[in-house]
Amino acid sequence: MTKIGHLEDTDIDIAIDEGEAGERRATELATRLRMVAAQDPLLAQDLVEELIVALDRAMGGTIREHLDGPALGVADRVLEAPEQGR
Question: In this predicted model, what pLDDT tens digit does every residue of 14-73 receive, in sequence order?
Fold first, then answer.
């Protein structure tokens, strides 16, 4: 038996809808953030905070409506910070 190797989702060329494509991009982003966090937790925290600010701006200030639990607490803290206007 010949081993071909491990296939990733990105190795398979199939048509997917926009929702699935968005989920895949979000999963890839989360994976990359985890990798950064393993190497440099402070950098990862800065990236997450900047992402929250950018998403809130892009969503017209409504990001909090889409979050709950710890994520909402982080968003509240980040968006109330004086340097929010980064």
Answer: 666 777 888 889 899 999 999 999 999 999 999 999 999 999 999 999 999 999 999 899
What is the rounded distance in angstroms from the CA atom of residue 70 to the CA atom of residue 77? 11
CB 57 within 8 Å of CB 65 = no
Residue 7 DSSP SS3: coil
Structure tokens at 8: 């990733």
Please state, in angstroms and rounded to a whole number, the distance separating the CA atoms of residues 59 and 30.
20
Instruction: Specify the DSSP class assigned to residue 8.
Output: P
Tokens 């895949």: give the residue: 24
Mean per-residue pLDDT, 2-12: 56
